[in-house]
Amino acid sequence: MTPATSHASAAPHREPAGAGNRLVVGGAALAWSALPEFALPAPAAVLAHGARDALAAARHHAVHGTELLITTGSRVDAALRAELLDAGFALTDLADGEPLTVPPARPRAAEPGRLWLLTSGSTGRPKRVGHTLDSLTTVRGDQPDRTWLCPYAPGTYAWWQVVTLSLTQPGQHLVVVEPDQLDDWPALAAAHGVDAASGTPTFWRRTIYRDADALARVPLRQITLGGEPVDQAILDQLRDLFPAARISWIYASSEIGAAIVVHDGRAGFPVGWLDRSAPGRPTLSVRGEELVITSPYHGVGLDGPVRTGDRVQVRDDRVLITGRLDSDEINVGGSKVSAGLVRDVLTAHPGVAWARVTGRRAPVLGRMVVAEVVPSPATGAGAEPPDEAALVRWCADRLPEHAVPRRIRVLTEIPVKETLKSDV
């Protein structure tokens, strides 16, 4: 990818508005302004080894406007490392907080104020998308004081959304979850007064599966979901646990920013939002079965309609996002099956905590529908978790015959990646 040629203005050399907000990192509390300071080359691709490193690099950019990309070492393989060096980035490894820098293979002038994000790589190798602190900051109005949980991997779009909120808004405190704290984050959150949390549907499902009672003890007033298709089952489970909280789901990506925000407790968004034009708001369209978005929060060079690669289906008064175009559709003997809609049927079963649906090669039909499920830890007084035959019957009562899974494998744990997704 060629770096952007347009130049963003440098950030002011002063502490950001949220400098006094409280951060909790590794169980220790400090303020943004108390994070360690270090010199960074420009442009720099920072490999963060923990939340403190990543937050310090983000603050460095907010103060100095250094052209910057933040990611974790686990995301940068040898090929991506060479690609970044060839694109003019100095590769800076924050080992123990001390920058260790490899100079770029092709030095170039820095672009002040530019931030780069790596896409998730779900459609191939990660790509770089250019932003600024301003384009990543989508919450601008006055907000009630909140203490936010941030479980995301540093440098991802979702991570920047929570980080920019705390950097730019006084009263928006941050409790960061390190990877080794993910299993027990509700205890950490309750101890530090977290009342707002953002995570993927897999993150929320996994937490409910592991210890719903511990989650219910966190005094959440704002719950946000994003990063994966959001189905009605997980929204209803969260509503049961937190009847007084505002529950929102957000459709966002590195390319087009935060484009859809829904607060009504229902999966999908209203059909009436399609092709609606309003100043400063994204325009949502459907071409074929693909979601197309024109967004004011887009990355560099992505103005105008952007094909998202996500498949949508209109059902009654809602537009449902079912999954990626290249993986959601299963062709069973010439009939199309949406893996996402089959997944939604499975997760609607009270005894299913999580499900993944895929296609498998089969004689005659070409492909057949198969699934993996994780049973809920409790399915009611005296009830046994559903077996494969029971789940097949459940699906047969709700789906056309060709869409019913022919094999269902039971797993004992909800799989999750560094991105907090299951790749469903």
TrEMBL record:
The keyword Ligase applies. GO terms for biological process: fatty acid metabolic process. Keywords: Ligase. Belongs to the ATP-dependent AMP-binding enzyme family. It comes from Micromonospora viridifaciens. This is Acyl-CoA synthetase (AMP-forming)/AMP-acid ligase II. Residues 344-418 form the AMP-binding enzyme C-terminal domain. Residues 103-272 form the AMP-dependent synthetase/ligase domain. Pfam families: AMP-binding, AMP-binding_C. One of its GO terms (molecular function) is medium-chain fatty acid-CoA ligase activity. PANTHER family: ACYL-COA SYNTHETASE (PTHR43201), MEDIUM-CHAIN ACYL-COA LIGASE ACSF2, MITOCHONDRIAL (PTHR43201:SF5). The lineage of its organism: Bacteria, Bacillati, Actinomycetota, Actinomycetes, Micromonosporales.
